[in-house]
Amino acid sequence: MKEKLEAIVKKAMASMNTANSLDALNEVRVDVLGKKGQLTAVLKGMKDVAPEERPKVGQMVNDARSSIEKTLEEVKEKLERVHMEQKLAREVIDVTLPAKKAAVGHRHPNTIALEEVERIFIGMGYEVVQGPEVEYDLYNFEKLNIPANHPAKDEQDTFYITKDIVLRTQTSPCQARVMEQGRLPIRMLSPGRVFRSDEVDATHSPSFHQVEGLVVDKHITFADLKGTLAQFARELFGPETKTKFRPHHFPFTEPSAEMDVSCFKCGGKGCRFCKGSGWIEILGCGMVHPHVFEMCGIDPEKYTGFAFGVGLERIALLKYEIDDMRLLYENDYRFLKQF
Question: Which BP terms does GO give this entry (predicted)?
Answer without folding.
Answer: phenylalanyl-tRNA aminoacylation
